[in-house]
Amino acid sequence: MIKSLIALLSFLIIFSCEKVQENNHSKTWSLKSEDRSKAFNNDENVVLPVLFDKRYFHGYQLSPDSNYPIYSHTDRYIGCVTVSFIDKDIEKQKEWLNFDVANNVDSGDDPDDEYFNSLNKIIRKKLESNVDGYNIIAEWIPAKYLSSSTFDYVYPYKKNYYLYNREKQSWYFIKEETVFDSSDGKNITKLTELNRMINNSPSNSSAKKLKIESLNNSISLKKLDGIWSSECKFRDHVFISSTIANAQFTVTNRFSMNAELKKTGVNKYEFYFTDFPPLIPLPDEMQNWSNLDNKKPVGSFEMINESKIELTWFGFYYKKTKKYIQTENPFSKNSSKAVIINCPE
């Protein structure tokens, strides 16, 4: 494992330069090069690099743990991107463990160009003959989290994960993770983590299929612009704006609230209060906003489809008592969850 890690780091140092040299054998499989690699993230404007462009491909490698194939690119403009290939058959994933040594390609104490070229060839032969049998996951660390001179991580940093949809040629946001330090190898993404992200296990093929279908059917926040309520004649409602990733709640006799939306997964958001417009008098316990923790989500919602949302209500976290107040869901008196529908304006 140590040899493999040294080899990978050496490889990244060699190839992570601003002016990428063209490589005679850097042609990837026949995915369209015009793919714009759109990615749905916390920021709807995020667009990943065109990851299948040969400019970002410097040869296949093994992961730091030597148990799945990857390729990587780093520069001061896009940051660090690692594209991982995870066999859909979890039993076959074992075939990649120490794949270089098993095929008589040894990095030794000082990996060189011959090692990297040989490793690229043997991985290419096995991987590209059955690339449709793999889930492709990209891990992206934006450039602002890397030192511009050394490309070392700037803690804390965020890394974002995306699943590739071949049919739509797009990257769909899976999750965002914050890394605070290098303890316990947190900089290295484990195979078990990637499998968990897409629910890949030998015993739950049905659940895995549903998970992948969910990722491939991500709904853009723009589709939710407008008014939502449990019944369109009901006075209580929420107005969603994708332009500013904001939700405006109007809850009769309780409060009017502006809330910031933060994406937490595919079709899932949490919302955090930002302010309370003086349209509706606030209850006494909410008069002083500083008593309420705006770092705690007020609730969350999941998009069922473009016209239906399941909204879960938590309430407001009261700092002094360390308990939630106003916990009744504005759209359901009997449950913390409520289904709300899109209403004509």
In short:
It comes from Chryseobacterium vrystaatense. This protein is an alpha+beta fold.
Structure description:
With 345 residues, this protein is an alpha+beta fold. The strands form three sheets. It has an eight-stranded antiparallel beta barrel with strand order 8-9-10-11-12-13-14-17. A seven-stranded mixed beta sheet has the order 1-7-6-5-4-3-2. A two-stranded antiparallel sheet has the order 15-16. A hairpin with a 3-residue loop joins strand 10 and strand 11.
The count of DSSP E runs of length 2 or more, i.e. the number of strands, is: 17
SSE class: alpha+beta
Radius of gyration: 24 Å
Strand adjacency order, main sheet? 8-9-10-11-12-13-14-17
Protein name: Lipoprotein
List the helices and strands and how they pair.
Blueprint: H1 2-15, E1 39-40, E2 61-62, E3 69-75, E4 79-87, H2 99-102, H3 113-127, E5 134-141, E6 157-165, E7 170-179, H4 191-197, H5 205-216, E8 226-229, E9 237-241, E10 246-251, E11 255-265, E12 268-275, E13 299-305, E14 308-313, E15 316-318, E16 323-325, E17 337-343
Parallel strand pairs: 1-7
Antiparallel strand pairs: 2-3, 3-4, 4-5, 5-6, 6-7, 8-9, 8-17, 9-10, 10-11, 11-12, 12-13, 13-14, 14-17, 15-16
Protein name: Lipoprotein
